[in-house]
Amino acid sequence: MKCLILAFTILAVVYAAPTNEQREAVKKAHEHCQSQEATRIDSDVFDKLRRGEKVHNTQLSKHTLCMNVQAGLQTESGDINVDKLRKAITEATSDPNLVNTIVEKCGKRVAGETAEETAVALFKCLHSQGPPHGHGHH
Question: PANTHER family from the xrefs (predicted)?
Answer without folding.
Answer: GEO07291P1-RELATED, ODORANT BINDING PROTEIN-RELATED
